[in-house]
Amino acid sequence: MRLNHLTGAGKALALAGVALGLGSAPAQAADYPQKPVELVIPFSQGGGTDQVGRIFAQYAEPYLGTEIFVSNRTGGSGAVGFAYGAAAKPDGHVITMVVTTLAAAPHTIDQYPVSYEDFAPVCLLTAPPATLAVHPDSGITSLEDLIAKAKAEPGKITIGTAGPGSNTHLIAASLADQAGIEVRYVPNKGSGPALTATYGKHIDVAVADKAEVAPWISDGRLRAITVFTDDPANSIDGVKMASESGFNIDIGSFRAIGAPKGTPQPVLDVLIETCRKTSEDPAFVEHITKTGTEPYVLLGEKFGTWLAGKHKAFGDAVKAAGL
Amino acid sequence: MNLLVDGFSAVLELQTLIYLAGAVLLGIMAGAIPGISATMGVALLAPLTFTMDPLIGILSLVGVYCGAVYGGSLSAILLGIPGTPGAVATTLDGYAMSRQGKPGIALGIATLSSFLGGTLSAVALMLLSYPIADFALAFGPQEYLALVVFAMTAMAALSGGAFLKGLFAGFIGLFLAGIGIDETYGVSRYHFGYLMLMGGISFIPVTIGLFAIPETLLSIERIGLAPRRAIRVNKILPGRRILLSLLPAQLRSAVIGTIVGAVPGAGSDVAAIVGYSQGKVLSRHPERFGTGSEEGIACAESANNSATGGSLIPLLTLGIPGGAVTAIMLGTFMTHGLQPGPLLLHNNAELVYQIFAGVFVANILLLVFGLSGSKLFARVLQIPESILIPAILLLCAIGAFAMRTNPVDVLIMFIAGMVGYVMVKTGIPRAPLIIGLILGPMLEGELARSLILIGNDWTGLFTPISSVIWLLAIAPFVLPLARRATRQLRSRIKTKN
């Protein structure tokens, strides 16, 4: 009865709301996508996020039914791209690579203008755990070796990280905190230079994710001494997991897709369905695996819960490390 | 040796050659458009190569890379706008020559020097990969710090006669580089709450604006004042005497460029600056640098093109990408199931030698396209200004926008353009500002890393390699003084006799 008191427009709105609530997806989804979709990559061409993003775009196109074009909106440790993606019109035509930095930087960089809460979760693509890598000549073969060495000479071991706002620094700091050791952190412009510096023996240890370390250990240029995971399937064969050494540091890196907050559910459903089909495409799996990591896929709300957990884990790590 | 012969025959197969030639042409065009750098050209092409045959795919990227680094010199010479960051030094003498009515010769020298530098670096890639890679690996923060300072002292060379004004411009560049979130400690600086400033000032829109806008404004000022000089490009090649006299400078620059390119983190931009600077210091006519010196063009172009071959050295032998272009190439290798590094030559020797041969052939193609196309390229200058100027402005706006797809960069370009105009009118050199902006973040990062590594012991800054570079860094200041002193001494001895 009360509905009668509403104006025409109000009725339409209420009805639309009911329709939305009931999830009459086909009618809504038919309107999407109407034009090519932009995938925002907040980091530069050639980096790890760029690589995963471009591969995803390539394989997802046929499933989404429209062109997906990649735009590298870089600067400010990802702030520029994330902020652009979060502020875009929430109609699904601008989606963003949501990666580790978005969970870490709000805790580590002052006035970082954007966080995971500005995005609607679409899907997680990869989550390679962090590893520690050393030069084979270093004589360090395990995490225990490293800790013993650091205890013998406090402040002598140098650990290369991917710089501010990166989870690699937090991982090193958490490890130092939990193991009670004193080390020197050397911030680099990304994990690549940190690994190169370790290979050139300028620093002792590099923190980098499994995908980035994989090529270095596959031909013996570097040695992995631990993998920060408790899931053997996610570890590296023949390398002891950090959990086996008594450390649980769960702030590894990840690469995922997000849409602006407020994107209608039917549009999100189309995107999520696209992700599901893409992640099950054997050609996509093979291509991603060649870059050093297996796909690790969580869809929609499941990914949202996981992402919130990550954000909190980073906050806890920052507090524990006293940064 | 057989491997190399096989490599050449694989590259010279018609299909491979067509792809490589197409890639080189594409690269030249990309490089010539201000703002479209080698990195962008390669990044755009890379996904298309995933489905190609590995050799063709990788060589296509190599072709675009070599082509783009050379292409940057075309707009530098003809329009006074460096097409890529590596062409900033080329602009100084190339555009001056062009204004003197000799654009053809300037293009010819740039083409020959690019070919020579690129080819010598290809030879180094084939014969000296391993020793050079080991040397590059010895570069730690202390060595980088010295290298950056070395490149910065080149500001003196890039300032023409106005040394103090050059220093001033360089410091403005350094200051602009400090804006945004710093890369060592994550501190936000000078952004006043604006996201656009938080992201830092990219040197691409600044470079375009600083060089392109003043030139267009000056052209507009000249309209109607004097009849436009009809530019005829009959000659591309300078005389044999000039060519021979350029050879030593080209060779030195090629060696410098190859090494700088091989060092991870430094690319053709740093190579060109260092090459140009050493050229001026060691030249018999340093006073001509900046006023249309053939030697200046030769030094800059030989150095920036040799950096391409150089940058492939750590990639192929150590699996280390030295910059954005080689990082994308590394990804392409891996997509094809290949792992660059010490084992690549062992497991895929054929492919490695085919790539060696490919770099060689890419440079020959560059020479062919450059020499045959120079007359055509120079025609740009015959386009009426009423069409040319708006076209340049449009291209510049697109270029500024393209790198980060950020509309703010277009605004930054125009602001930089206004500043550039004032700088031209007041005689403040613009190149040092760009150098400061490019090298600022490197200087800061390497200094911070060096200090972390050496602790409180300042002598730790001077490793064997870094000490040599520090000495080279002060050479531009000390050598002219020493030369003057010896000259005075000589004249005194003469008068005594």
Automatic annotation (TrEMBL), chain A:
Q: Tell whether Signal is among the UniProt keywords.
A: yes
Q: Which Pfam families match?
A: TctC
User: Signal sequence span per UniProt?
Assistant: 1-29
Q: Which residues form a coiled coil?
A: none
Keyword annotations from UniProtKB, A to Z: Receptor, Signal
Keyword Acetylation part of the UniProt annotation: no
Give the source's domain of life in one word.
Answer: Bacteria
Q: Which Gene3D superfamilies does the entry mention?
A: Bordetella uptake gene, domain 1, Periplasmic binding protein-like II
Give the family this protein belongs to, as stated in its UniProt record: Belongs to the UPF0065 (bug) family.
**By what name is this protein known?**
Tripartite-type tricarboxylate transporter, receptor component TctC
Q: Which organism is it from?
A: Thalassobaculum litoreum DSM 18839
TrEMBL record, chain B:
UniProt-listed InterPro entries: DUF112_TM
* Residue ranges of the TM segments: 20-46, 58-81, 105-132, 144-172, 192-213, 312-331, 351-371, 383-402, 408-424, 431-455, 461-482
One Pfam family, short name: TctA
Superkingdom, natural source: Bacteria
> Which residues does UniProt call coiled coil?
none
Question: What are the entry keywords?
Answer: Membrane, Transmembrane, Transmembrane helix
- Which ranges carry the DUF112 domain? 17-435
Q: What is this protein called?
A: Putative tricarboxylic transport membrane protein
